[in-house]
Every structure is written in C-alpha cells, then in structure tokens.
Design brief:
By secondary structure, the protein is mainly β. The chain has a 7-stranded antiparallel sheet with strand order 2-8-5-6-7-4-3, with no helix packed on it. The protein is 0% helix and 39% strand.
C-alpha cells in the first residue's frame, strides 16, 4: 500500500484582470484545479476559492467570474494556493493488478 500526499505553497500573482484572468508565471496548474486567492485589492469578491481553467503556462481563468466581481484591473499584491494538491492517492495491489484511488480531504 502506497500513500502519496503533496502540499502547495502560496505564490504571488503577477496580475489579475476584471475578467478573472490571472497571470502567474509557470503556475503548473491544470483545468479543474481548485485554488484559493487571497490578498487581491481592487477587485471585489476575488479573494476566495475558485475552480480554474488553464489558458497557458502562465495564465488561467477563474471559473464563475461574473459582473459581481468586476472592478479595476490590478497588479497589486495578491497570492494564490492550489487547494486540491493535498489529495491522497492510494495504490493497492492485492490481486496483482494495481488500482489507484484518489481520496479527497474532508470538507
């Protein structure tokens, strides 16, 4: 039985637009990751958890962004942390066939 767990650290956002586009050089995120945004000034409602869509190696979009989050474009300090990176992957091999199970953290 193998159990794998990883943690993520806070990363400084390069910029975030009023359309919910985040620039973060070399973020390494993929579409569907859950992230937490914190410390963003100038855009109401940006600081919370989001599911993202990867646009490229250095940008992603916050899903569900809407008019309620509109504000000024900002390059002020903000940070982001991947929240689903603490998922645990359990690999078992009781019958000779490896089976992987992804188990999330309790809410």
């Amino acid at each position: 039985l193998n159990v794998l767990k990883a943690e993520d650290t806070w990363k400084t956002i390069g910029s975030i637009t009023n359309a919910g586009l985040v620039t973060l050089d070399g973020h390494g995120y993929v579409t569907g990751n859950k992230v937490k945004v914190s410390g963003v000034a100038g855009i109401a409602g940006a600081n919370r958890e989001w599911i993202i869509t990867r646009n490229g190696a250095n940008t992603f979009t916050l899903r569900g962004w809407g008019a309620a989050h509109a504000g000024l474009e900002t390059t002020e300090e903000g940070r982001v942390k991947r929240m689903d990176k603490g998922l645990v992957q359990i690999t078992s091999c009781e019958t000779g066939d490896a089976t992987k199970h992804n188990v999330g953290r309790p809410s």
